[in-house]
Write a structure and sequence with these properties.
Layout lengths: L1 H70 L1
């Protein structure tokens, strides 16, 4: 009986560091997932902003071309 209790306590004692590492790893993975989601949102916003800027630039180039043709 005494041997069984010592074996169980030894097993539990050996599992504590493993469980601690698993919990830390899970926390780190969750943090990384949140960070990646935020970066994805920022990239989508950045792509949208770039598209708007390029559209505006193309519109200005068209206006300049029309004005230059009118001068001739």
């Amino acid at each position: 009986m005494d041997n069984t209790i010592m074996t169980i306590l030894g097993f539990i004692g050996a599992m504590i560091p493993v469980v601690a590492v698993i919990i830390k790893l899970n926390t780190t993975i969750t943090t990384l997932n949140v960070t990646i989601e935020q970066l994805n949102k920022q990239m989508k916003n950045s792509q949208s902003d770039r598209k708007d800027i390029h559209d505006q630039l193309n519109d200005h180039e068209t206006r300049i071309t029309i004005l230059e043709k009118d001068r001739d």
